[in-house]
User: Fold this.
Amino acid sequence: MPPSRLFWKIFLAFAAIGVVAALALVVMTLRWERERLSIEAETRLKQAAALVRPIAEQAFGEETAQQARVRALGEAAGVRITLVDAQGKVLADSSVATAEEVAKIENHRTRPEIAAALKTGSGMTERASATMGDQTRYYAERIDAGGTRGVLRVALPTANIELQLAALRQLLINWAAAVIGALLLATYIIARNVVQPVVALRDTATAIAAGDYAQRAFVPSNDELGQLGEALNRLSTELGSQLSELRRSGQRQSTVLGGMVEGVVAVDDRQRVLFANTAAGRLFDFLPPKAEGRPVLELIRNHDLQRVLSQALAEVAPKWTELEWGKLLLTAQVTPLPGIPCPGAVVVLHDITELRRLEGMRRDFIANVSHELKTPLSSIKAYAETLLNGALRDEEHNVRFLERINEQADRLNLLIQDMLSLARIESDQQSFEIARVGVADAVAACFDQHQSAAEAKSIALVTTPPSDALFVRADAEGLREILSNLIDNAIKYTAPEGRVEVRWRRDGERVRIEVIDNGLGIPADQMDRVFERFYRVDKARSRELGGTGLGLAIVKHLAQSFGGDVAVSATPGGGSTFAVNLPPA
Assistant:
Protein backbone atom coordinates (compact mmCIF):
# COMPACT_ATOMS: atom_id res chain seq x y z
CA MET A 1 0.00 0.00 0.00
CA PRO A 2 1.58 3.36 -0.99
CA PRO A 3 1.75 5.87 1.88
CA SER A 4 -1.29 8.11 1.98
CA ARG A 5 -1.51 11.81 2.72
CA LEU A 6 -2.82 11.07 6.21
CA PHE A 7 0.23 8.83 6.79
CA TRP A 8 2.59 11.61 5.77
CA LYS A 9 0.76 14.11 7.93
CA ILE A 10 1.04 11.90 11.00
CA PHE A 11 4.57 10.74 10.22
CA LEU A 12 5.98 14.20 9.46
CA ALA A 13 4.21 15.78 12.42
CA PHE A 14 5.56 13.29 14.94
CA ALA A 15 8.97 13.23 13.21
CA ALA A 16 9.19 17.04 13.37
CA ILE A 17 8.22 17.00 17.05
CA GLY A 18 10.86 14.33 17.78
CA VAL A 19 13.61 16.10 15.81
CA VAL A 20 12.83 19.46 17.39
CA ALA A 21 12.74 17.89 20.87
CA ALA A 22 16.07 16.10 20.31
CA LEU A 23 17.76 19.23 18.95
CA ALA A 24 16.33 21.33 21.77
CA LEU A 25 17.68 18.82 24.29
CA VAL A 26 21.12 18.93 22.64
CA VAL A 27 21.16 22.75 22.65
CA MET A 28 19.95 22.97 26.26
CA THR A 29 22.48 20.35 27.42
CA LEU A 30 25.33 22.17 25.68
CA ARG A 31 24.19 25.45 27.17
CA TRP A 32 23.94 23.93 30.62
CA GLU A 33 27.34 22.32 30.26
CA ARG A 34 28.86 25.62 29.06
CA GLU A 35 27.40 27.43 32.06
CA ARG A 36 28.66 24.68 34.35
CA LEU A 37 32.19 24.82 32.91
CA SER A 38 32.08 28.63 33.03
CA ILE A 39 31.13 28.59 36.70
CA GLU A 40 33.79 25.99 37.33
CA ALA A 41 36.40 28.16 35.61
CA GLU A 42 35.34 31.23 37.59
CA THR A 43 35.52 29.27 40.81
CA ARG A 44 38.97 27.95 39.90
CA LEU A 45 40.18 31.46 39.06
CA LYS A 46 38.87 32.89 42.32
CA GLN A 47 40.37 30.02 44.29
CA ALA A 48 43.67 30.49 42.53
CA ALA A 49 43.54 34.24 43.22
CA ALA A 50 42.84 33.59 46.89
CA LEU A 51 45.81 31.22 47.12
CA VAL A 52 48.15 33.55 45.27
CA ARG A 53 47.02 36.81 46.93
CA PRO A 54 49.24 36.63 50.09
CA ILE A 55 52.25 35.84 48.01
CA ALA A 56 51.34 38.52 45.50
CA GLU A 57 51.08 41.13 48.29
CA GLN A 58 54.63 40.27 49.38
CA ALA A 59 55.81 40.39 45.79
CA PHE A 60 54.52 43.95 45.39
CA GLY A 61 56.86 44.97 48.22
CA GLU A 62 59.95 43.55 46.61
CA GLU A 63 61.84 45.27 43.94
CA THR A 64 63.50 42.20 42.65
CA ALA A 65 62.72 38.64 42.04
CA GLN A 66 59.04 39.53 41.21
CA GLN A 67 59.11 37.94 37.80
CA ALA A 68 60.73 34.73 38.98
CA ARG A 69 58.36 34.34 41.93
CA VAL A 70 55.26 35.09 39.83
CA ARG A 71 56.38 32.63 37.16
CA ALA A 72 56.89 29.96 39.81
CA LEU A 73 53.49 30.67 41.32
CA GLY A 74 51.77 30.46 37.92
CA GLU A 75 53.37 27.14 37.10
CA ALA A 76 52.44 25.77 40.52
CA ALA A 77 48.81 26.96 40.32
CA GLY A 78 48.35 26.05 36.62
CA VAL A 79 47.11 29.53 35.78
CA ARG A 80 48.55 32.67 34.29
CA ILE A 81 49.37 35.30 36.94
CA THR A 82 49.95 38.92 36.13
CA LEU A 83 50.90 41.74 38.55
CA VAL A 84 49.96 45.24 37.37
CA ASP A 85 50.66 48.47 39.32
CA ALA A 86 48.10 51.20 39.77
CA GLN A 87 49.17 52.94 36.55
CA GLY A 88 48.63 49.77 34.48
CA LYS A 89 52.30 48.86 34.11
CA VAL A 90 52.91 45.12 34.09
CA LEU A 91 55.29 44.27 36.88
CA ALA A 92 55.38 40.51 36.39
CA ASP A 93 53.68 37.89 34.19
CA SER A 94 53.98 34.15 34.58
CA SER A 95 53.56 33.65 30.85
CA VAL A 96 56.95 35.20 29.98
CA ALA A 97 60.39 34.07 31.08
CA THR A 98 62.43 37.19 31.86
CA ALA A 99 62.00 40.66 33.26
CA GLU A 100 63.21 42.10 29.96
CA GLU A 101 60.27 40.49 28.20
CA VAL A 102 57.96 41.84 30.89
CA ALA A 103 59.18 45.33 30.25
CA LYS A 104 58.11 45.02 26.63
CA ILE A 105 54.48 44.24 27.53
CA GLU A 106 52.10 47.12 26.79
CA ASN A 107 50.25 49.03 29.52
CA HIS A 108 47.24 47.10 30.90
CA ARG A 109 45.32 49.93 32.51
CA THR A 110 42.66 49.82 29.75
CA ARG A 111 42.10 46.10 30.06
CA PRO A 112 38.45 45.65 31.15
CA GLU A 113 39.20 43.40 34.08
CA ILE A 114 42.05 45.71 35.29
CA ALA A 115 39.89 48.81 35.01
CA ALA A 116 37.02 47.08 36.83
CA ALA A 117 39.34 45.87 39.62
CA LEU A 118 40.86 49.33 40.13
CA LYS A 119 37.41 50.81 40.29
CA THR A 120 35.33 48.22 42.15
CA GLY A 121 37.85 45.87 43.67
CA SER A 122 37.44 42.96 41.23
CA GLY A 123 36.61 42.24 37.60
CA MET A 124 35.86 39.21 35.44
CA THR A 125 36.04 39.12 31.61
CA GLU A 126 36.53 36.69 28.79
CA ARG A 127 38.28 37.80 25.64
CA ALA A 128 41.15 37.11 23.33
CA SER A 129 44.48 37.83 24.91
CA ALA A 130 46.35 40.68 23.25
CA THR A 131 49.63 39.21 24.54
CA MET A 132 49.08 35.47 23.97
CA GLY A 133 46.48 35.65 21.20
CA ASP A 134 44.17 32.90 22.50
CA GLN A 135 40.69 33.10 24.09
CA THR A 136 41.17 33.62 27.84
CA ARG A 137 39.05 34.18 30.93
CA TYR A 138 40.43 36.82 33.32
CA TYR A 139 39.81 37.51 36.97
CA ALA A 140 41.43 40.58 38.58
CA GLU A 141 41.52 41.74 42.23
CA ARG A 142 42.75 45.02 43.58
CA ILE A 143 45.54 44.76 46.19
CA ASP A 144 45.54 47.55 48.78
CA ALA A 145 48.13 48.01 51.48
CA GLY A 146 47.87 51.55 52.86
CA GLY A 147 47.08 52.68 49.36
CA THR A 148 46.44 51.10 46.05
CA ARG A 149 49.46 49.08 45.14
CA GLY A 150 48.13 47.40 42.07
CA VAL A 151 46.10 44.56 40.65
CA LEU A 152 46.49 40.81 40.83
CA ARG A 153 45.14 39.17 37.66
CA VAL A 154 44.63 35.47 37.23
CA ALA A 155 43.87 34.09 33.72
CA LEU A 156 42.84 30.69 32.45
CA PRO A 157 42.64 29.81 28.72
CA THR A 158 39.18 28.63 27.63
CA ALA A 159 40.50 26.26 24.98
CA ASN A 160 40.10 23.36 27.37
CA ILE A 161 36.47 24.33 27.97
CA GLU A 162 35.84 24.45 24.23
CA LEU A 163 37.46 21.04 23.82
CA GLN A 164 35.20 19.60 26.49
CA LEU A 165 32.17 21.25 24.90
CA ALA A 166 33.14 19.97 21.44
CA ALA A 167 33.45 16.44 22.75
CA LEU A 168 30.14 16.71 24.53
CA ARG A 169 28.56 18.25 21.43
CA GLN A 170 29.70 15.36 19.26
CA LEU A 171 28.44 12.88 21.81
CA LEU A 172 25.07 14.60 22.00
CA ILE A 173 24.80 14.83 18.22
CA ASN A 174 25.50 11.11 17.87
CA TRP A 175 23.02 10.35 20.59
CA ALA A 176 20.40 12.65 19.06
CA ALA A 177 20.89 11.07 15.62
CA ALA A 178 20.36 7.63 17.08
CA VAL A 179 17.31 8.78 19.01
CA ILE A 180 15.87 10.54 15.95
CA GLY A 181 16.44 7.45 13.80
CA ALA A 182 14.73 5.24 16.35
CA LEU A 183 11.96 7.80 16.73
CA LEU A 184 11.42 7.96 12.95
CA LEU A 185 11.24 4.19 12.74
CA ALA A 186 8.78 4.00 15.62
CA THR A 187 6.76 6.86 14.13
CA TYR A 188 6.65 5.10 10.76
CA ILE A 189 5.41 1.87 12.31
CA ILE A 190 2.85 3.60 14.53
CA ALA A 191 1.58 5.86 11.70
CA ARG A 192 1.32 2.90 9.34
CA ASN A 193 -0.62 0.85 11.89
CA VAL A 194 -2.95 3.79 12.52
CA VAL A 195 -3.41 4.76 8.88
CA GLN A 196 -3.90 1.28 7.40
CA PRO A 197 -7.32 0.76 9.11
CA VAL A 198 -8.30 4.32 8.21
CA VAL A 199 -7.38 3.69 4.54
CA ALA A 200 -9.35 0.43 4.62
CA LEU A 201 -12.34 2.30 6.07
CA ARG A 202 -11.94 5.01 3.43
CA ASP A 203 -11.82 2.49 0.57
CA THR A 204 -14.88 0.72 1.95
CA ALA A 205 -16.81 3.98 2.37
CA THR A 206 -15.83 5.03 -1.18
CA ALA A 207 -17.03 1.68 -2.57
CA ILE A 208 -20.30 1.97 -0.64
CA ALA A 209 -20.80 5.51 -1.94
CA ALA A 210 -20.24 4.16 -5.47
CA GLY A 211 -22.96 1.55 -4.92
CA ASP A 212 -20.84 -1.51 -4.05
CA TYR A 213 -22.70 -2.62 -0.95
CA ALA A 214 -20.92 -5.99 -0.92
CA GLN A 215 -17.65 -4.25 0.07
CA ARG A 216 -16.45 -4.94 3.63
CA ALA A 217 -13.81 -3.26 5.81
CA PHE A 218 -11.32 -5.64 7.48
CA VAL A 219 -9.91 -3.97 10.60
CA PRO A 220 -8.32 -6.62 12.87
CA SER A 221 -7.96 -4.37 15.94
CA ASN A 222 -10.53 -4.23 18.74
CA ASP A 223 -10.19 -0.51 19.37
CA GLU A 224 -12.42 2.32 18.18
CA LEU A 225 -11.26 1.85 14.56
CA GLY A 226 -12.24 -1.81 14.71
CA GLN A 227 -15.62 -0.88 16.13
CA LEU A 228 -15.99 1.74 13.39
CA GLY A 229 -15.20 -0.92 10.77
CA GLU A 230 -17.86 -3.23 12.19
CA ALA A 231 -20.39 -0.39 12.23
CA LEU A 232 -19.50 0.47 8.63
CA ASN A 233 -19.96 -3.16 7.59
CA ARG A 234 -23.37 -3.28 9.28
CA LEU A 235 -24.26 0.02 7.61
CA SER A 236 -23.24 -1.38 4.20
CA THR A 237 -25.37 -4.49 4.71
CA GLU A 238 -28.35 -2.46 5.88
CA LEU A 239 -28.00 0.10 3.08
CA GLY A 240 -27.71 -2.67 0.49
CA SER A 241 -30.82 -4.34 1.82
CA GLN A 242 -32.79 -1.10 1.97
CA LEU A 243 -31.60 0.01 -1.48
CA SER A 244 -32.57 -3.35 -2.97
CA GLU A 245 -35.99 -3.00 -1.42
CA LEU A 246 -36.26 0.59 -2.66
CA ARG A 247 -35.25 -0.50 -6.14
CA ARG A 248 -37.81 -3.29 -6.13
CA SER A 249 -40.42 -0.88 -4.81
CA GLY A 250 -39.39 1.74 -7.38
CA GLN A 251 -39.53 -0.81 -10.17
CA ARG A 252 -42.98 -1.93 -9.06
CA GLN A 253 -44.12 1.65 -8.79
CA SER A 254 -42.59 2.51 -12.17
CA THR A 255 -44.19 -0.56 -13.73
CA VAL A 256 -47.57 0.28 -12.23
CA LEU A 257 -47.42 3.96 -13.17
CA GLY A 258 -45.95 3.19 -16.60
CA GLY A 259 -48.67 0.64 -17.29
CA MET A 260 -51.50 2.95 -16.30
CA VAL A 261 -53.62 4.29 -19.12
CA GLU A 262 -54.28 7.36 -16.98
CA GLY A 263 -51.74 10.15 -17.09
CA VAL A 264 -50.02 10.82 -13.75
CA VAL A 265 -48.05 14.01 -13.04
CA ALA A 266 -46.55 14.84 -9.62
CA VAL A 267 -45.60 18.47 -8.93
CA ASP A 268 -43.95 20.31 -6.03
CA ASP A 269 -45.29 23.34 -4.19
CA ARG A 270 -43.99 25.62 -6.98
CA GLN A 271 -45.86 23.55 -9.60
CA ARG A 272 -42.66 22.10 -11.03
CA VAL A 273 -42.83 18.55 -12.34
CA LEU A 274 -41.38 15.89 -10.03
CA PHE A 275 -42.56 12.87 -12.02
CA ALA A 276 -44.65 12.10 -15.08
CA ASN A 277 -45.57 8.69 -16.44
CA THR A 278 -45.57 7.52 -20.04
CA ALA A 279 -49.32 7.98 -20.46
CA ALA A 280 -49.05 11.67 -19.46
CA GLY A 281 -46.22 12.19 -21.94
CA ARG A 282 -48.30 10.50 -24.63
CA LEU A 283 -51.34 12.66 -23.86
CA PHE A 284 -49.48 15.99 -23.90
CA ASP A 285 -46.63 15.12 -26.30
CA PHE A 286 -43.55 15.42 -24.05
CA LEU A 287 -40.79 13.09 -22.89
CA PRO A 288 -41.30 12.27 -19.17
CA PRO A 289 -37.53 12.01 -18.31
CA LYS A 290 -36.96 15.53 -19.69
CA ALA A 291 -39.99 17.01 -17.94
CA GLU A 292 -38.61 16.90 -14.38
CA GLY A 293 -37.99 20.35 -12.92
CA ARG A 294 -39.98 22.20 -15.57
CA PRO A 295 -43.16 24.20 -14.77
CA VAL A 296 -46.29 22.17 -15.40
CA LEU A 297 -47.83 25.04 -17.39
CA GLU A 298 -44.87 24.86 -19.77
CA LEU A 299 -45.70 21.22 -20.53
CA ILE A 300 -49.50 21.35 -20.30
CA ARG A 301 -50.65 24.72 -21.55
CA ASN A 302 -54.08 24.66 -19.98
CA HIS A 303 -55.11 27.42 -17.59
CA ASP A 304 -58.02 25.44 -16.19
CA LEU A 305 -55.59 22.78 -14.97
CA GLN A 306 -53.28 25.42 -13.47
CA ARG A 307 -56.21 27.07 -11.72
CA VAL A 308 -57.42 23.80 -10.18
CA LEU A 309 -53.86 22.88 -9.23
CA SER A 310 -53.32 26.24 -7.51
CA GLN A 311 -56.59 25.85 -5.61
CA ALA A 312 -55.68 22.35 -4.44
CA LEU A 313 -52.24 23.50 -3.21
CA ALA A 314 -53.68 26.59 -1.50
CA GLU A 315 -56.64 24.84 0.16
CA VAL A 316 -54.86 21.48 0.68
CA ALA A 317 -57.99 19.76 -0.61
CA PRO A 318 -58.68 17.50 -3.62
CA LYS A 319 -60.04 19.21 -6.73
CA TRP A 320 -61.61 17.94 -9.95
CA THR A 321 -62.22 19.42 -13.36
CA GLU A 322 -62.73 18.55 -17.02
CA LEU A 323 -60.28 19.73 -19.67
CA GLU A 324 -60.47 20.01 -23.43
CA TRP A 325 -57.17 19.12 -25.07
CA GLY A 326 -57.46 19.23 -28.83
CA LYS A 327 -60.00 16.57 -29.80
CA LEU A 328 -59.69 14.90 -26.40
CA LEU A 329 -61.86 15.39 -23.33
CA LEU A 330 -59.99 14.77 -20.07
CA THR A 331 -60.82 14.72 -16.39
CA ALA A 332 -58.16 15.95 -13.96
CA GLN A 333 -58.16 14.79 -10.32
CA VAL A 334 -55.73 16.86 -8.24
CA THR A 335 -54.79 15.40 -4.83
CA PRO A 336 -52.43 17.34 -2.50
CA LEU A 337 -49.49 15.43 -1.01
CA PRO A 338 -49.50 15.04 2.80
CA GLY A 339 -47.47 17.53 4.82
CA ILE A 340 -47.60 21.03 6.28
CA PRO A 341 -46.89 23.16 4.38
CA CYS A 342 -48.17 21.19 1.40
CA PRO A 343 -45.13 19.85 -0.50
CA GLY A 344 -46.96 19.32 -3.80
CA ALA A 345 -49.76 17.44 -5.49
CA VAL A 346 -50.50 14.51 -7.80
CA VAL A 347 -52.57 15.07 -10.94
CA VAL A 348 -54.34 12.04 -12.42
CA LEU A 349 -55.70 12.58 -15.93
CA HIS A 350 -58.36 10.32 -17.47
CA ASP A 351 -59.17 10.33 -21.17
CA ILE A 352 -62.98 10.23 -21.25
CA THR A 353 -63.31 11.03 -24.93
CA GLU A 354 -64.39 7.50 -25.84
CA LEU A 355 -66.64 7.32 -22.78
CA ARG A 356 -68.40 10.51 -23.78
CA ARG A 357 -68.66 9.23 -27.37
CA LEU A 358 -70.16 5.96 -26.14
CA GLU A 359 -72.57 7.84 -23.90
CA GLY A 360 -73.58 9.92 -26.89
CA MET A 361 -73.98 6.77 -28.95
CA ARG A 362 -76.10 5.23 -26.20
CA ARG A 363 -78.33 8.31 -26.10
CA ASP A 364 -78.55 8.32 -29.89
CA PHE A 365 -79.26 4.58 -29.92
CA ILE A 366 -82.10 4.96 -27.43
CA ALA A 367 -83.49 7.92 -29.37
CA ASN A 368 -83.10 6.13 -32.69
CA VAL A 369 -84.62 2.88 -31.44
CA SER A 370 -87.51 4.81 -29.94
CA HIS A 371 -87.99 6.69 -33.18
CA GLU A 372 -87.61 3.62 -35.40
CA LEU A 373 -90.09 1.66 -33.31
CA LYS A 374 -92.43 4.59 -32.91
CA THR A 375 -92.85 5.20 -36.66
CA PRO A 376 -94.20 1.76 -37.69
CA LEU A 377 -96.15 1.38 -34.46
CA SER A 378 -97.77 4.77 -35.01
CA SER A 379 -98.66 3.79 -38.58
CA ILE A 380 -100.09 0.43 -37.47
CA LYS A 381 -102.09 2.12 -34.69
CA ALA A 382 -103.42 4.81 -37.05
CA TYR A 383 -104.53 2.30 -39.72
CA ALA A 384 -106.06 0.00 -37.09
CA GLU A 385 -108.02 2.87 -35.51
CA THR A 386 -109.20 3.94 -38.97
CA LEU A 387 -110.42 0.43 -39.69
CA LEU A 388 -112.14 0.18 -36.30
CA ASN A 389 -113.82 3.52 -36.85
CA GLY A 390 -115.66 2.24 -39.95
CA ALA A 391 -113.08 1.88 -42.67
CA LEU A 392 -113.26 -1.90 -42.21
CA ARG A 393 -116.55 -1.83 -44.16
CA ASP A 394 -115.07 0.43 -46.81
CA GLU A 395 -114.21 -2.11 -49.48
CA GLU A 396 -112.37 0.53 -51.47
CA HIS A 397 -109.81 1.30 -48.71
CA ASN A 398 -109.85 -1.50 -46.13
CA VAL A 399 -107.56 -3.78 -48.10
CA ARG A 400 -105.07 -0.95 -48.68
CA PHE A 401 -105.09 -0.14 -44.96
CA LEU A 402 -104.48 -3.77 -44.09
CA GLU A 403 -101.60 -3.90 -46.60
CA ARG A 404 -100.06 -0.81 -44.92
CA ILE A 405 -100.44 -2.48 -41.53
CA ASN A 406 -98.77 -5.62 -42.88
CA GLU A 407 -96.01 -3.52 -44.49
CA GLN A 408 -95.26 -1.66 -41.25
CA ALA A 409 -95.38 -4.92 -39.28
CA ASP A 410 -92.81 -6.39 -41.71
CA ARG A 411 -90.66 -3.29 -41.26
CA LEU A 412 -90.98 -3.57 -37.50
CA ASN A 413 -90.12 -7.26 -37.63
CA LEU A 414 -87.07 -6.57 -39.84
CA LEU A 415 -85.86 -3.89 -37.42
CA ILE A 416 -86.23 -6.20 -34.43
CA GLN A 417 -84.51 -9.05 -36.25
CA ASP A 418 -81.58 -6.79 -37.19
CA MET A 419 -81.30 -5.55 -33.60
CA LEU A 420 -81.36 -9.09 -32.22
CA SER A 421 -78.82 -10.22 -34.79
CA LEU A 422 -76.50 -7.31 -34.00
CA ALA A 423 -76.87 -7.93 -30.26
CA ARG A 424 -75.98 -11.62 -30.66
CA ILE A 425 -72.93 -10.79 -32.79
CA GLU A 426 -71.65 -8.14 -30.36
CA SER A 427 -72.10 -10.40 -27.32
CA ASP A 428 -70.46 -13.41 -29.06
CA GLN A 429 -73.62 -15.42 -28.46
CA GLN A 430 -74.06 -16.24 -32.13
CA SER A 431 -71.98 -19.23 -33.18
CA PHE A 432 -70.30 -19.27 -36.59
CA GLU A 433 -69.04 -22.20 -38.59
CA ILE A 434 -65.74 -20.84 -39.81
CA ALA A 435 -64.80 -22.65 -42.96
CA ARG A 436 -63.23 -22.23 -46.39
CA VAL A 437 -65.70 -20.10 -48.36
CA GLY A 438 -65.35 -19.16 -52.03
CA VAL A 439 -65.78 -15.45 -52.62
CA ALA A 440 -67.12 -15.90 -56.17
CA ASP A 441 -69.91 -18.22 -54.97
CA ALA A 442 -71.00 -15.80 -52.24
CA VAL A 443 -71.04 -12.88 -54.69
CA ALA A 444 -73.07 -14.88 -57.23
CA ALA A 445 -75.62 -15.86 -54.58
CA CYS A 446 -76.07 -12.23 -53.50
CA PHE A 447 -76.41 -11.05 -57.10
CA ASP A 448 -79.20 -13.60 -57.62
CA GLN A 449 -80.88 -12.33 -54.45
CA HIS A 450 -80.81 -8.64 -55.51
CA GLN A 451 -81.11 -9.00 -59.26
CA SER A 452 -84.82 -8.10 -59.32
CA ALA A 453 -84.29 -4.96 -57.19
CA ALA A 454 -81.43 -3.87 -59.49
CA GLU A 455 -83.48 -4.47 -62.62
CA ALA A 456 -86.35 -2.43 -61.16
CA LYS A 457 -83.98 0.58 -61.11
CA SER A 458 -82.10 -0.40 -64.28
CA ILE A 459 -78.91 -0.76 -62.25
CA ALA A 460 -76.20 -2.98 -63.70
CA LEU A 461 -74.63 -5.50 -61.31
CA VAL A 462 -71.04 -6.15 -62.39
CA THR A 463 -68.32 -8.43 -61.00
CA THR A 464 -64.58 -8.17 -61.56
CA PRO A 465 -63.10 -11.45 -60.33
CA PRO A 466 -59.35 -12.12 -60.18
CA SER A 467 -57.65 -14.62 -62.44
CA ASP A 468 -57.43 -17.20 -59.66
CA ALA A 469 -60.24 -18.33 -57.38
CA LEU A 470 -59.94 -16.84 -53.86
CA PHE A 471 -61.23 -18.32 -50.63
CA VAL A 472 -61.62 -16.74 -47.18
CA ARG A 473 -62.00 -18.09 -43.66
CA ALA A 474 -65.54 -17.12 -42.66
CA ASP A 475 -69.04 -18.34 -42.00
CA ALA A 476 -70.75 -18.87 -45.37
CA GLU A 477 -74.06 -17.39 -44.23
CA GLY A 478 -72.27 -14.52 -42.50
CA LEU A 479 -70.25 -13.67 -45.62
CA ARG A 480 -73.43 -13.67 -47.72
CA GLU A 481 -75.07 -11.37 -45.14
CA ILE A 482 -72.10 -8.98 -45.36
CA LEU A 483 -72.28 -8.86 -49.17
CA SER A 484 -76.08 -8.70 -49.15
CA ASN A 485 -76.14 -5.64 -46.88
CA LEU A 486 -73.47 -3.85 -48.92
CA ILE A 487 -75.09 -4.62 -52.28
CA ASP A 488 -78.53 -3.71 -50.92
CA ASN A 489 -77.24 -0.32 -49.71
CA ALA A 490 -75.45 0.28 -53.02
CA ILE A 491 -78.66 -0.40 -54.99
CA LYS A 492 -80.77 1.79 -52.68
CA TYR A 493 -78.47 4.80 -52.87
CA THR A 494 -77.61 4.56 -56.56
CA ALA A 495 -79.72 6.47 -59.02
CA PRO A 496 -81.55 4.60 -61.84
CA GLU A 497 -79.36 3.60 -64.79
CA GLY A 498 -76.47 3.37 -62.31
CA ARG A 499 -73.86 0.72 -61.75
CA VAL A 500 -72.86 -1.49 -58.81
CA GLU A 501 -69.59 -3.39 -59.08
CA VAL A 502 -68.17 -6.11 -56.82
CA ARG A 503 -64.52 -7.00 -57.15
CA TRP A 504 -62.08 -8.92 -55.00
CA ARG A 505 -58.35 -9.56 -54.96
CA ARG A 506 -55.46 -10.72 -52.78
CA ASP A 507 -54.09 -7.75 -50.80
CA GLY A 508 -51.00 -8.80 -48.85
CA GLU A 509 -52.07 -11.12 -46.04
CA ARG A 510 -55.78 -10.44 -46.63
CA VAL A 511 -58.46 -10.91 -49.27
CA ARG A 512 -60.05 -7.56 -50.11
CA ILE A 513 -63.67 -7.51 -51.29
CA GLU A 514 -64.94 -4.15 -52.59
CA VAL A 515 -68.51 -3.06 -53.38
CA ILE A 516 -68.41 0.04 -55.59
CA ASP A 517 -71.33 2.22 -56.69
CA ASN A 518 -71.71 5.54 -58.48
CA GLY A 519 -74.48 6.77 -56.24
CA LEU A 520 -74.86 9.67 -53.83
CA GLY A 521 -71.52 9.29 -52.07
CA ILE A 522 -70.76 10.23 -48.46
CA PRO A 523 -69.49 13.55 -47.06
CA ALA A 524 -65.93 13.29 -45.71
CA ASP A 525 -66.91 14.42 -42.19
CA GLN A 526 -69.45 11.57 -41.89
CA MET A 527 -67.45 8.59 -43.16
CA ASP A 528 -66.17 7.76 -39.64
CA ARG A 529 -69.76 7.28 -38.43
CA VAL A 530 -71.41 5.30 -41.25
CA PHE A 531 -70.80 2.02 -39.39
CA GLU A 532 -72.58 3.23 -36.23
CA ARG A 533 -75.98 1.81 -35.43
CA PHE A 534 -78.92 3.82 -36.81
CA TYR A 535 -76.59 6.38 -38.35
CA ARG A 536 -77.83 7.63 -41.72
CA VAL A 537 -76.24 10.12 -44.02
CA ASP A 538 -79.66 11.14 -45.38
CA LYS A 539 -82.19 10.17 -42.72
CA ALA A 540 -85.32 11.11 -44.69
CA ARG A 541 -84.22 9.23 -47.83
CA SER A 542 -83.11 6.20 -45.78
CA ARG A 543 -86.49 5.83 -44.12
CA GLU A 544 -88.19 6.35 -47.45
CA LEU A 545 -86.11 3.49 -48.87
CA GLY A 546 -86.99 1.28 -45.92
CA GLY A 547 -83.58 0.94 -44.28
CA THR A 548 -83.22 0.15 -40.58
CA GLY A 549 -79.85 1.89 -40.15
CA LEU A 550 -78.28 -1.33 -38.77
CA GLY A 551 -76.98 -2.94 -41.96
CA LEU A 552 -73.48 -1.43 -41.93
CA ALA A 553 -73.11 -2.00 -38.17
CA ILE A 554 -73.89 -5.70 -38.80
CA VAL A 555 -71.30 -5.74 -41.63
CA LYS A 556 -68.63 -4.28 -39.33
CA HIS A 557 -69.24 -6.69 -36.47
CA LEU A 558 -69.47 -9.75 -38.72
CA ALA A 559 -66.16 -8.85 -40.39
CA GLN A 560 -64.50 -8.42 -36.99
CA SER A 561 -65.94 -11.76 -35.85
CA PHE A 562 -64.20 -13.40 -38.83
CA GLY A 563 -60.88 -11.72 -37.96
CA GLY A 564 -61.16 -8.96 -40.53
CA ASP A 565 -62.06 -5.30 -40.79
CA VAL A 566 -64.00 -2.83 -42.94
CA ALA A 567 -63.23 0.46 -44.64
CA VAL A 568 -65.02 3.06 -46.74
CA SER A 569 -63.98 5.75 -49.19
CA ALA A 570 -66.35 8.10 -50.95
CA THR A 571 -66.93 11.56 -52.35
CA PRO A 572 -70.25 13.46 -52.31
CA GLY A 573 -72.00 12.76 -55.63
CA GLY A 574 -69.14 10.54 -56.80
CA GLY A 575 -70.14 7.19 -55.42
CA SER A 576 -68.83 5.07 -52.58
CA THR A 577 -66.49 2.12 -52.13
CA PHE A 578 -67.03 -0.21 -49.19
CA ALA A 579 -64.21 -2.70 -48.57
CA VAL A 580 -64.13 -5.83 -46.42
CA ASN A 581 -60.74 -7.37 -45.58
CA LEU A 582 -60.86 -11.03 -44.49
CA PRO A 583 -58.16 -13.63 -43.77
CA PRO A 584 -57.51 -15.99 -46.70
CA ALA A 585 -58.22 -19.71 -46.47
